[in-house]
Specification:
This protein has 19 helices and four strands. By secondary structure, it is mainly alpha-helical. α5 crosses α11, α7 packs antiparallel against α18 and α8 packs across α16. The termini are far apart.
Length: 425
Amino acid sequence: MDFFKLKEHNTTTATEIRAGFTTFLTMLYIVPVNALIMSNAGMPIEALLTATALITIIATILNGLWANTPVAMSVGMGINAYFTYGLVIGVKMPWQSALGVVFISGIIFLALSLTPFRVWIIESLPQDLRRAISAGIGTFIAFIGLKEMGIIVDNPATLVGLGDMGNTNTLLGLFGLIIVSALYSLRVKGAFIVAILITSIAGWIFTPLAFPKEVFSMPSSISPIFFELDILSALKLSLLPVIITFLITDMFDSLGTLAGVGFRAGLFKKNSKDLEKTLQADGFATVIGSLMGTSTTTAFIESASGVEEGGRTGLTAVATGLFFILTLFLLPLFKAIPPNAIYPVLVMVGVLMFSELSQIDFNDTATAIASFFIVIMMPLTYSITNGLAFGFIAYILIKLVKREFSDISLGLWVLSGISLLVFVV
């Protein structure tokens, strides 16, 4: 029995496994990067390394078996930064409560994946605003990366200023940024993880950082973060905008990624159930991830690398998930990676998301003003929620002034009303 329908998709087992290994290499960076980001929320990095690897394995294999699509999943970049720097550090929310927010948003996403609502809410937002949201999140996480690298620092006179460019760690971060930019520009496969390794080696040689005495070890326990979420504390009216932010971000992230990957692979055709099943796997993985101690799980755009290698079925995703088992035993190596070898990747991911601005029609005044507020307010207020609120409200106000009422959908009215809760509650 051809479970993955390889012949129907004009592919072979060897091609699918090779494609799965390619996807694995391109998104391997997520394990150390996510663990470092979320550890700044006060969570133990050892447990996070294991949890990130486990949820990647579970989510990716689940999608391969359930939806039969070559889409890998893991903890979403951007939303994990918002989890740490926006909620835990920004508004002093306990990380247990933040995990409760992730759980609730995941339950809602999973429920909506079984209804037409997700299509309605996506179609309610103009395409340009969706692109602005992606660019805004990119700006937000790039700002965080630059701050953590020491390139941007606090300045009492101007709020922010340029850091000490003579500092060894800052120079290491700059070196890493140059390396990751160059490798990505040259389209090197696995550019992110290769850049992390090169920068780490430079850090171990030229800075007082400990070279890993060993590479392999048994996986660390996730018990310090497993089932530690606090759902009841997240069930507050004041947190509704935050829950909606996680929900919308995951929805846009997933659908944007699946649209791009699906186009290249010829997936998600009309009346196909593959998209629905992939979204269901995404929602289920987010719920499971919150129980294990990780932020929102989403489809990864790096899946496109496997598609380019010929991956067309869920066997590619299953292979990717199985390869990620190797990361469970790399704890000493991941712990020895200098933070400034990782933060440049965060900046580069921000750059790629920011590039969505090039597709926006700035000739429309409402779109231009709303996009500006979305992009600028996310990093300046350290909040994705605030950026969305300013953008949605600005868009509606300008459309009302211009009497372009037909451009304001019911869904946009609903989202803007929720956004007002950011300022009222």
